[in-house]
Automatic annotation (TrEMBL):
Keywords: Oxidoreductase. InterPro entries: NAD(P)-bd_dom_sf, Sc_DH/Rdtase_CS, SDR, SDR_fam. This is 2-hydroxycyclohexanecarboxyl-CoA dehydrogenase. It holds the Pfam family adh_short_C2. Belongs to the short-chain dehydrogenases/reductases (SDR) family.
């Protein structure tokens, strides 16, 4: 038996990249996964590959109405939500002085507001049922900064701070809230960023003590731990999964 047997999990942005890796790991550990993604085809394709009665649902995390509809559909179908992984994210890399307010709005809407929307909707369910685990995907950019990612760093720093407060408020309901902070990861998002700067990958691999970018599975393993009963007495914590690039 897996350590997440019979758990109901929502993973946002799970149609590709880190989110899909997380969904695959949770399913492998026995969870039924709700694959939330703005791309309906990707959500359904991922869910179909997972088994365990997993389903894909369209979810635009920037829209509270869309998030509420997803959560209502999950509770109606399964009756509870045991795990929420706030993974959906987006970034545009450029110097802050060259960045546009419209891009700030999108970065904050997807990364920070998306986490807030999903958390408030799902934590209400978890508070009523008296158990649950929320795992937010932060970033080491939000812990130590990252050149070219000023607003993304601000949004992810906000997620890290929100994690701590949500953990304090939800503890009485036996709900844990933790944060996994990736360092540079080998994802479609990174591929798009590095396409404009071919030397970026090589430079990062030299800078990371373990000499490689994170793979989705590296992040998924940390998320699965926080989602499991093994982490029942851990809350309000941020775990960097960065190959040693950052250390605290």
């Amino acid at each position: 038996m897996g350590k997440l047997e019979n758990k109901i999990a929502i993973v946002t942005g799970a149609g590709s990249g880190i989110g899909r890796g997380i969904a695959e790991k949770l399913a492998a550990e026995g969870a039924t996964v709700v694959v939330g993604d703005i791309n309906e085809a990707a959500a359904n394709e991922t869910a179909g590959a997972l088994g365990n009665d997993s389903i894909g649902l369209v979810a635009d995390v920037t829209s509270r109405e869309s998030v509420d509809a997803m959560v209502a559909a999950v509770t109606e179908k399964y009756g509870r939500i045991d795990i929420l992984v706030n993974n959906a994210g987006w970034d545009k890399v450029e110097p802050f002085l060259q960045s546009k307010v419209s891009d700030w709005d999108r970065v904050i809407a997807i990364n920070l507001y998306g986490t807030l929307h999903c958390s408030q909707a799902v934590l209400a369910v978890m508070a009523e049922q008296g158990h649950g685990a929320v795992i937010n995907i932060g970033s080491d950019a939000g812990r130590v900064g990252s050149s070219g990612e000023a607003v993304y760093s601000a949004a992810k720093g906000g997620i890290i701070a929100f994690t701590k407060t949500a953990a304090r408020e939800m503890a009485r309901n036996k709900v844990t809230v933790n944060c996994v902070s990736p360092g540079p990861a080998d994802t479609p998002l990174f591929a798009g960023i590095s396409a404009e700067n071919p030397k970026l990958r090589e430079a990062l691999e030299r800078a990371i003590p373990l000499r490689r970018l994170a793979q989705p599975a590296d992040l998924a393993n940390a998320v699965a731990f926080f989602a499991s009963d093994e982490a029942a007495f851990i809350t309000g914590q941020t775990l960097s999964v960065s190959g040693g690039l950052t250390m605290s």
